Amino acid sequence: MKNQRIEYIIDEILDQYAYADESNRPWIIGFSGGKDSTVLLMLVWIAMLKLKEQPVPFQLRRPIYVVCNDTLVENPIIATYVDDVLAQIETKAREADLPIFVRKTTPRLEDSFWVNVIGKGYPVPNTAFRWCTEKMKIKPTARFITEQVDECGEAIILIGTRKAESATRARSIKKHEIHGKRLTKHTLLANTFVYAPIKELLLEEVWYIINAIPSPWGFDNKILFNIYLDASADDYECPTVVTDKSHGSCGQSRFGCWTCTVIKDDKSMRSLIKNGREWMQPLYDFRLKLDQERNVIENRFPLRRDGKKAVNDMGPYTFTYRAQMLEGLLNVQHELQQHNPQIKLITDQELIAIQVNWYRDFNFGHQVSEIYNKIYNSTFAMEDGKLKNKLEADLMREICKENIEEGELIEQLLMLQKSKSLMQRRRGLKTEIESRLEEFVKTKKKP
Question: Residue 409's pLDDT band (boundaries 50, 70, 90)?
């Protein structure tokens, strides 16, 4: 390796790890699988190998966590690639006896994209209402960082940001850097510091490292290069670890969420389709449909979730439209699984959580299991005990045959109770039951 600047960065990383910082506070590398985070990890790995060759083995004492956040709606091409890379990193790190450990973060179930959009009726994000970044990207990784700080007192985040990425990024780096200091304080997280070893690298140098230096964990970097080649679009990536509020949007990312409606057009996916991934066309079309139907007033309730009047009568999505979205999503998933049976666009846990949220919103007219079974012609797991439930429902209807409305109320209250059991959280059950009873009483009082 003859490039002087690259050698300097490696030596600086080694010095910072072993000598400049005498504490054992962990390093956390934000890894997206993109070019910059890949180069960052490569240089850190090479520095650790150089350090291991030195006659002081105790210097490899500090854990290095490679943290990758999965929003659960990642571009399937990137998701598969990143999973393969992470598995290789973990394997090779153990073989080389390096203190490098892979950690994957995901949004909590209640924060996932489909639970919010289809379950709660949130409109898909746009520039004015970009709720997704906080819930799906910032919070999961911030939780992991906070756990490390709680355990170790402090933590250092290594990021692959570069001044040459954009004028905005250069201004952000300059604003927070301290002259003569490698570390800067994290602007959002206490007792957390930021280290950007490759901030001075140019784009050409990044690609030189990827193409000229073999991956130290044994993965073929040509795969990454070809993905970028096939997805020619704006040269920008979503940061995995958000270090300040200037990173709040992932809307212009080359490889962001396939569902992203903050952007007008998903150029990267369009390019992938054009360059041979025709099987991704249903994803592209479904994202476009989500965007185009976002502000159709017939798809929206006039009231907000708290019962107050919505601006321009554009509240949450209606129950009917939520059910239509779920059916459309499952149709796309089923179609893609003909190409690759391993693809899942929505998890079983999310499907259950969607049904739970429908019950909580008093949406008893649509059943997730019925929609799923319509697409897959098979019984969804939620249907376990269906016969028993049917017998109980038939018995209750027989008992309440002279008071049908009261029988339906009891059935709905039981569904609410069941929804809390499915989520293993009973908080709020009393309030929701009272709300349903009040609604029932109001209905009965109407002439």
Answer: confident
State the distance between the two ends of the chain, measured CA to CA, in whole angstroms: 85
- Minimal CA–CA distance to 82: which of 113, 47, 46, 106? 106
Q: Half-sphere exposure (CA, 13 Å, Cβ side) for 240?
A: 30
Residue 54 identity (one-letter amino acid)? Q
What is residue 197's predicted lDDT score, i.e. its pLDDT?
96
Half-sphere exposure of 13 (CA within 13 A, CB side): 30
Find the length of the chain.
447
- Judge whether 296 and 282 are in contact, CB under 8 Å: no
Assigned fold of 4-248 = Rossmann fold (3.40.50)
Strands lying side by side in the sheet with 155-158: 100-105, 64-69, 27-30, 155-158, 192-195, 183-185
Q: Are 272 and 280 in contact (CB under 8 A)?
A: yes
The pLDDT tens digits for 25-84 are: 999 999 999 999 999 999 999 999 999 988 766 678 899 999 999 999 999 999 999 999
- Judging by beta carbons within 10 Å of its beta carbon (0-12, 13-18, 19+), is residue 340 exposed, middle or buried? exposed
Tell me the one-letter amino acid at 394.
Answer: D
Query: In whole angstroms, how far apart are CA 186 and each of 18, 142, 289?
Result: 22, 11, 39
- State how far the Cα of 427 lies from the Cα of 436, in Å rounded to an integer: 16
Task: Tell me how far apart the alpha carbons of residues 89 and 201 are, in angstroms, rounded to a whole number.
Answer: 24
Kindly list the distances between the CA atom of residue 252 and the CA atoms of 100, 104, 306, in Å, as whole numbers in the listed order.
31, 23, 32
CA atoms within 13 A on the CB side of 332: 22
For the chain, how big is the Rg over CA atoms in Å? 25
pLDDT, tens digit, for every residue of 188-218? 899 999 999 999 999 999 999 999 999 999 9
Residues pairing with 27 in the sheet: 64, 156
- What distances in angstroms separate CA 344 from CA 210, 260, 291, 357, one per listed residue? 30, 17, 21, 21
C-alpha atoms less than 13 angstroms from C-alpha of 231 in its C-beta half-sphere: 25
CA 394, 396, 402, 407 torsion: positive or negative?
negative
Query: What are the extents of the domains in the chain?
Result: 4-248, 295-383, 386-445
11: three-class secondary structure by DSSP: helix
Residue 65, strand partner residues: 28, 101
Q: Give me the torsion for CA of 387, 389, 392, 394, rounded to 10°.
A: -70
Q: How far apart are CA 192 and CA 149, in angstroms?
A: 7
The amino acid that residue 306 corresponds to is D
**Residues 1-15: pLDDT tens digits?**
558 899 999 999 999
